[in-house]
Design goal:
By secondary structure, the chain is mainly β. The chain has 1 helix and 11 strands. The strands form 2 sheets. A 6-stranded mixed beta sheet has the order 1-9-6-2-3-4, with no helix packed on it. It has a 5-stranded mixed beta sheet with strand order 5-11-10-7-8. Strand 7 and strand 8 form a beta hairpin.
Length: 150
Amino acid sequence: MRNRAAARSLVLGALTALAVTTPVSGASAEGRALAGSYCTNPDAMPKPTACIQLSFEGQTAQGYTNSSDRTIDLRPGVYWLTVDDTSTAHNFSLEAPDGSDQDITEVADAPGDVTLMVNLTPGSWTLFCDPHRAMGMYVDIEVGGTGQTG
């Protein structure tokens, strides 16, 4: 438990994440809006609700068993990530390119909308449900190219 708390502190610094209490939408000088949620897909195992998705400006990636559409491409920069967690069976976690991860929500919480600011640096990031990641409940975020403009 102590190691997890120490790791969480390190990840918070590495991700430069700041929790806020209200959802943010649209783009601004301070960042762009990403939306994470649970989804339903008939191909998800062990049941259709074992699905996670991430959306940004018309792109949507879904992570479920054997998903062929689980990757979203983003430019480096600051994003406001809002996750809609209404489940006591799932959670949202974010893994950085260096392998460190941060729990955005906990499994038993179901807090509803949670928004945090994330500075996405170049590399491969992953948004996932910790207890169901092995079943395919994750979305890959590929960050590359030049940074945000506007």
